[in-house]
């Protein structure tokens, strides 16, 4: 961005076409999970292009951490909205997930069409142990930032025990952790006093186009009538979508069940995708039987290997479910899969757009959410226990399968050990871990 923009007072001075090109590019390069995606946006928008200041970036990120939904996708939506109103937010949020949506449908088709080929099956069998380690590494990474003091450790341990031994519903764990955090905040406890930092300070605040001192643009000012309009539009879109499914296929149809289930999942994604994955897995595999546990693990591997938020694994869930479910009579399995994937993705991300477009003006108008920090921190602590439970769940299916033993356990353990060394000791990327695991699986199949 040219220096002549450094003293601009209106965010619309960021050319829309230039922003459009960036959001499209971001959709294809947003690897590395939420941390990597947020780092890319920080590097590009705060440090390199100077479209937004450090303070405004972190203000937006803090809000996206508080509300349910994929924080990186919501951050892109928030920044796009701040620069170019609702259209900018919609474009940024949609382009952030669109490449991943198309890729996961294509990879899902390849998986279902050629997955039973010996070489392809061996590659996925090699990836499965690595996925278990990747999930465990996510718990370790979040725990390093979150579990500071005895109370967060107790919450994390309690969440793990509640899930693994007593099968407590995931929503109850989230609500219980939030209640503990709120009570600690009300009592004046400092157990959750330290806020996590998500980006490194250092960039100048004043030379950004959207800086800390510029006036609040008109579209970002709080208005009760505007808030009501956004909420009404969001509720109407959801209601019309559910009604259309009921009219088209019936209230008890799998597509309608998917719409309702993934709406609930979208409203429970506090703490990132890893936190809600156990809930999605339990519903998709155990409750509804839309796909198998093995397919879920393979879907997570594909989700880790493609750009976009990790919660995009729900697109794979929908496609696989529809492809093998014959949801719509008289159409091909591919069409069934694409329809189910679209339904699942729509209901998963619709609430995210409503949260940003409705809540953004509250944040920009100086409303603070500090009182929500303690409940959020308690939820994040519980998420650590939830993710560890997910890793145990994966490990049970990978290393101790209940059915036919399709892959030598010794090789799985070796791949897991190598993956752990790559992630924990050498601190390499998830993509590299998956690549090495796939290569080992492929080489093993030759022998």
Question: Please, how many domains?
Answer: 1
Shape: globular
Helical content class? over 70%
Largest sheet features: none
Low-confidence stretches: 1-12, 195-203
What string, H for helix and E for strand, traces the elements in order? HHHHHHHHHHHHHHHH
Task: State mean pLDDT (0 to 100 scale).
Answer: 83
Computed Rg: 22 Å
- The total beta strand count reads 0
Q: Could you say which structural class the secondary elements and strand pairing correspond to?
A: mainly alpha
Task: Give the CA-CA distance, first to last residue.
Answer: 55 Å
Notes on the structure:
The structure is a single chain. The chain has 447 residues and is mainly α. The protein has one domain. Helices cover 72% and strands 0% of the residues. The protein contains 16 helices and no strands. α5 packs across α15, α6 packs across α14 and α8 packs antiparallel against α13. The relative contact order is 0.17.
Keywords for this entry:
447 residues; single chain
Element layout with pairings:
Elements: H1 16-29, H2 33-48, H3 54-66, H4 71-114, H5 118-146, H6 150-164, H7 170-186, H8 224-249, H9 254-266, H10 273-287, H11 293-305, H12 313-325, H13 333-364, H14 373-399, H15 409-425, H16 430-446
């Amino acid at each position: 961005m040219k220096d002549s923009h450094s003293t601009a007072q209106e965010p619309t001075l960021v050319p829309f076409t230039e922003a459009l090109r960036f959001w499209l590019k971001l959709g294809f390069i947003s690897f590395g999970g939420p941390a990597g995606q947020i780092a890319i946006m920080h590097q590009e928008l705060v440090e390199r292009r100077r479209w937004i200041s450090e303070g405004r970036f972190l203000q937006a990120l803090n809000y996206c951490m508080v509300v349910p939904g994929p924080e990186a996708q919501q951050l892109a939506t928030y920044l796009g909205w701040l620069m170019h109103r609702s259209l900018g937010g919609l474009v940024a949020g949609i382009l952030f997930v669109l490449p991943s949506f198309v890729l996961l449908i294509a990879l899902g088709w390849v998986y279902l069409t050629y997955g039973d080929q010996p070489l392809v099956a061996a590659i996925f069998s090699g990836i499965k142990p690595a996925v278990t380690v990747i999930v465990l590494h996510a718990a370790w990474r979040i725990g390093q930032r979150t579990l500071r003091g005895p109370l967060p450790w107790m919450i994390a341990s309690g969440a793990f025990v509640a899930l693994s031994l007593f099968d407590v519903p995931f929503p109850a764990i989230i609500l219980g952790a939030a209640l503990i955090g709120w009570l600690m905040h009300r009592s004046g406890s400092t157990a959750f006093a330290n806020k996590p930092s998500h980006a490194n300070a250092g960039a100048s605040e004043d030379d950004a186009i959207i800086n800390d001192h510029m006036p609040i643009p008109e579209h970002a000012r709080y208005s009760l009538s505007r808030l009501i309009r956004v909420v009404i539009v969001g509720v109407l879109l959801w209601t019309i979508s559910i009604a259309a499914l009921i009219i088209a296929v019936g209230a008890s149809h799998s597509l309608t069940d998917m719409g309702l289930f993934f709406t609930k999942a979208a409203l429970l994604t506090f703490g990132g995708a890893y936190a809600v994955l156990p809930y999605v897995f339990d519903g998709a595999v155990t409750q509804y039987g839309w796909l198998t546990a093995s397919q879920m693990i393979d879907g997570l591997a594909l989700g880790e290997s493609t750009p976009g938020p990790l919660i995009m694994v729900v697109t794979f869930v929908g496609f696989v479910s529809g492809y093998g479910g014959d949801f719509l009579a008289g159409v091909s399995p591919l069409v069934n899969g694409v329809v189910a994937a679209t339904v699942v993705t729509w209901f998963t991300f619709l609430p995210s757009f409503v949260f940003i477009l409705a809540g953004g003006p509250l944040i920009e108008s100086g409303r603070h959410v500090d009182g929500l920090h303690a409940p959020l921190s308690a939820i994040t602590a519980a998420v650590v226990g939830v993710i560890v439970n997910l890793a145990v769940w994966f490990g049970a299916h990978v290393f101790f399968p209940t059915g036919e033993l399709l892959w030598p356990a010794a090789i799985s353990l070796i791949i897991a050990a190598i993956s752990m060394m790559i992630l924990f000791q050498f601190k390499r990327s998830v993509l590299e871990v998956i690549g090495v695991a796939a290569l080992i699986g492929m080489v093993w199949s030759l022998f």
